[in-house]
Amino acid sequence: MEKAMRVSIAELREDMKKAISELHIEVEKHGKEQDEGVKAAAEKLSSFHNQMADKLTVVEKQLSSRLSEVESRIVAANERIRGLGMSLKGRSLNGTSEASAEMKRSHAVNLASRSHGAFVVSHLTSKAASSSSVLLSLVDSVFPLETYNIAITERTHINPSEAFCFDGSEGTLTIRLWANTTVAAVEYEHDYWRDVVPISAPDRYDVMACMDHECGETILLGECRYPSVENGGPAQMCEMQNRSLTTDQVQVVFRKNHGQQYTCVYLLRVLNWM
Q: DSSP string of 7-30?
């Protein structure tokens, strides 16, 4: 009986070893399957990450391209706005300048008005250009035509022939004013023109105050250009830089014209603000 029990115990031990061995095999198999599952899941996750990274790269490129396009549009819009602002500012300044000139003109007195007693000092004024007509030249030699007076004669409409012209681009026009006072500005009006300035028109001229009636001593009141404003029309004003000096005689010294062999002066006003 003891022998039988030992045999039974031995068999039981063998069965236990076998069961334990099978359990180890099952555990190892299960662990291996889990490792393979984790590895497969990791590979799937890595593949998913790679796909997402590729998609994100594409989206970033698209966004970057769109942002660049938007930025370029913003820059272009800002340039247009800046250009429009400068244009409006220029128009506003021109409008303000024109309005200011009109206001000053409406409150100005013409010190060179012949109707008030002003006159041209002939012997201190350039000789009028000789006419191409032989008859007019002969008449002018016997009875000199005082065409220089046209330069200060007020009129509502200026005709092309109504001008004081002298040879060359340099000359003088001396005016005895009807009052001894300060000179604020000089306004020159040429025959009507638009866009293109007539080549006989003055370009640069200086306004001098005569300290005596022979203009032996002169003081510069202002340096002027005509036209001073592009597309400003035939009548344009030049304000004096020196407005503190009083005088009753001015000498306008023409320095340059716009290219003609002679210079024509249509209407010159010497202004003082009231």
A: HHHHHHHHHHHHHHHHHHHHHHHH
- At residue 68 the predicted structure's pLDDT band, cuts being 50, 70 and 90, is confident
Same domain, residue pair 56 and 124 = no
State whether 233 and 132 are in the same domain: yes
39 and 103: one domain?
Answer: no
Give the contacts of 98 (CB within 8 A, at least 6 positions apart): 232
In a domain, 67, yes or no: yes
Number of domains in the chain: 2
Residues counted in the chain: 274
Q: Who contacts 36 (Cβ-Cβ below 8 Å, separation ≥6)?
A: none
Cis omega (within 30 of 0) for bond into 227: yes
Using one digit for the tens of pLDDT, what is the confidence trace for 239-249? 999 999 999 99
Is residue 92 included in any domain, yes or no?
A: no
The domain containing residue 13 runs over which residues? 1-87
* Among 176, 155, 173, 177, residue whose Cα is nearest residue 164: 173
With CA atoms as reference, report the closest residue to 188 among 226, 218, 220, 161: 226
- Token digits of residue 69: 């396009």
In angstroms, the Cα distances linking 154 to 114, 129, 150, 158, 180 are 8, 22, 8, 9, 20
Same domain, 108 and 153: yes
Contact 208, 245 (CB under 8 A): no
| CATH number reported for the structural domain that contains residue 203 in this entry | 2.60.120.260
- The closest alpha carbon to 126, from 253, 216, 258, belongs to 253
Domain boundary among 52, 87, 122: 87
119 pLDDT higher than 90: yes
Distance of CA 122 to the CA centre of its chain: 44
